[in-house]
Amino acid sequence: MKLNLLFGAGSTIGVGLPTTAEITAHLERIGMEASNSYLKNRTFFSHLKDLLMRRGNFEDVHFELMLYAMEVIFPLLPQKEHFRVPDYFRSVLPAFVDLTEEAQRMEELGSISSWRGIAFRSISTLISERIATSLDKERHLADFLFVLSKQFKLRVFTLNYDDLVDRVDLSWRDGFLPNNSSFYQVFDAKQFIEEDKNSEALLVHLHGSTRFGYAQDGIFEIHNYSSPERAIHFLDDKGFSQNVHGRQILSGPMISGLSKIEQLMFRPCPYGYYFNSFMQNLITNNRLLILGYGGWDRHINEWILQFMQVHGSAARIAHIGPCQNKDLLTAIANNSLQPVKLTDTFHYYGDNVVFEPAVFPFADAETLDTIVRFLAS
Q1: pLDDT tens sequence across 323-350
Q2: How many CA atoms, within 13 angstroms, populate the side-chain half-sphere of residue 17?
């Protein structure tokens, strides 16, 4: 019997990993101080955040919005002649928007692509530092997964960059295979398809991992390194972009920003295969455990809805932890065989739907036992 697990950021906050707000504040503090009066001694990311709030009227500027802004700005900036792409792929916005002056001011602090690399290295470092100080709490996640593994073949889909799940000794399969190097593994699509069908424990980092980095030989292939400490040396953006009709999509070892679906589809190894696995497992396996997912990734939400559409009353879905997206919660509640009245904090255990607002790790073992019995029913 297979069980789909979807891990969001809320699944690791309880063990000490950084929140979205903490990552955002961390990025604002890094980098060189500005040398000109226009930037008023702000860092690159604090300046970017200020522009989004002051000119864009954004109220909640977090690190993913800042990274997305960089993705949007990149193809609009003046390009050197030998980097010029064919008209078929170029953005049309430069015909209407002049970013030359602002771009020159920002370029004094470094290029967009170089700052993306700095951002990803900083995020990876922050996550690794937090893990190092919370090792005593890791056992909660390990115990949780071991209990589930006794009942189910696990299909873990995590949206988190950390390698906490990787550290749990369940002989995870992820499509990466050893090669001549002891430092990294290479993705094998054919092998991953086979593992997806038959393995006891599948681990899929849908949006990348602190262990992922570019290949050492300079090509743009994604490798899975033995540790985040090794991978961090291969996170530089390298200016790699995918040319798509009317735009360019920046893509790298860690999928972030607000254009994740394009990055997933145009980076097939491993991300295209990973997202395809997520979709296929949801529509073929009728058990889904959602842990700590806030509900803001539209490409994820749509397939949770398809999961309920395909399986109907046969679906077994447990949502654990708070969710800010009330539309998603309502859709899950509407799939219940019994009427569910949604409130801000509530416990609900029905025949085919469970809502458990407790933040992981659980305060008592009974909560986990109840959820396992429900999913196995």
Answers
A1: 888 899 888 988 888 877 666 556 777 8
A2: 25
**Domain termination site, one of 112, 130, 148:** 130
255 burial level (CB within 10 Å; 0-12, 13-18, 19+)? buried
If asked whether residues 195 and 293 sit together in one domain, one would say: yes
**Residue among 109, 110, 113, 114 at smallest CA distance from 38:** 109
Other Cβ atoms closer than 10 A to 291: 23
Shared-domain flag, residues 118 and 263: no
Residue 293, judged by CB atoms within 10 A of its CB (0-12, 13-18, 19+), counts as buried
Whole-angstrom Cα distance, residue 109 to residue 243? 26
Do 65 and 13 sit in the same domain of this protein?
no
Q: What is the domain range of residue 95?
A: 20-130
Report yes or no on 365 lying in a domain: yes
Predicted TM-score (pTM) of this structure: 0.89
Q: Which of 335, 368, 337 has its CA nearest to residue 350?
A: 337
| Total of domains in the chain | 2
Separation in Å, CA 319 to CA 125, 349, 375: 30, 10, 11
